[in-house]
Amino acid sequence: MKFSEEELKRYHRQMMLDGWGEATQKKLKNSTVFIAGAGGLGSPVSIYLAVAGIGHIQICDFDTPDWTNLNRQILHDHTRIGVNKAISAQITIKKLNPSIQVTAFPAKITPENVDALAGEADIIVDCMDNFPTRYLLNESAIRKNIPLVYGSIWGMDGRLSFIQSPETPCLRCLFPDAPPSETFPVLGTTPGVIGSLQALETIKYLTGIGRTLKGKLLVWDGGRTEFRTFKARRDPNCPTCGKR
């Protein structure tokens, strides 16, 4: 695939990075990313992947925006209330970068459809707000032998990890039990921070430039503006990856 003159101008500043150039940019253009969730985390993830030049973004969400989403879900605005979030995301992303392909899946992720939804993606980005669905994505990533970029938020705090089983612990190793479902507080800047880092982890993996958080868990304390990184440990008795 050749770049248009407009694309070369659009990506010029990132192509100036050491080791980047057109060859690395083509890796992004030839990549497919599956983003699970078009909400608080899915918004910055999809926006920054789109403007970086990911060739095909697949985004999935069965829900619709409401007023309580608009402090953080920047893919949507008040004119999109009642519109499916994946469709709304597709509209926003295509406006930001018309040269990429965007596929919207207005569907709920289930054990029966998760593999089909992820399709031939090179990587899965977990932007969900519940662990049962996160576990489904984790299992699909393992079956497909592709990485999963995990991110979660609560209030001013967030967590992030790059998971590539069997090289790393899987998500179930890190979080054996799902926390109770709840409507939790969140400041819009928190998914802005964590979602941007999820996009960065994705880009680093696809380009091969930089080091990912493979085998580590990053914890963001937004109240103190502090990052802490912990080594992730694999559970040999993990029901998901323990026998791999």
CATH architectural arrangement: 3-Layer(aba) Sandwich
The helix/strand series, from N terminus to C terminus, equals HHHEHEHEHEHEEHHEE
Give the CA-CA distance, first to last residue.
37 Å
**CATH topology tier name:** Rossmann fold
The radius of gyration over CA amounts to: 17 Å
Helical fraction: 25-40%
In the residues, how many domains can be counted?
Answer: 1
Structural class assignment: alpha/beta
The CATH homologous superfamily is named NAD(P)-binding Rossmann-like Domain
Overall mean confidence score, pLDDT: 96
Name the beta content range: 15-25%
Widest sheet, order of strands:
3-2-1-4-5-6-7-8
Q: How many helices does DSSP assign? A: 9
Give me the count of strands. 8
CATH top level class name:
Alpha Beta
Describe the sheet with the most strands: 8 strands, mixed
Low-confidence parts:
none
Q: Given the C-alpha coordinates, what overall shape results?
A: globular
Description:
- The protein is an alpha/beta fold.
- The chain has one domain: NAD(P)-binding Rossmann-like Domain (Rossmann fold, 3-Layer(aba) Sandwich).
- It contains nine helices and eight strands.
- It has helices at residues 5-10, 12-15, 21-29, 42-52, 85-96, 114-118, 131-144, 171-174, 189-207, and strands at 32-36, 56-60, 101-105, 123-126, 148-154, 157-163, 216-221, 226-231.
- Strands 3-2-1-4-5-6-7-8 form an eight-stranded mixed sheet, with helices on both faces.
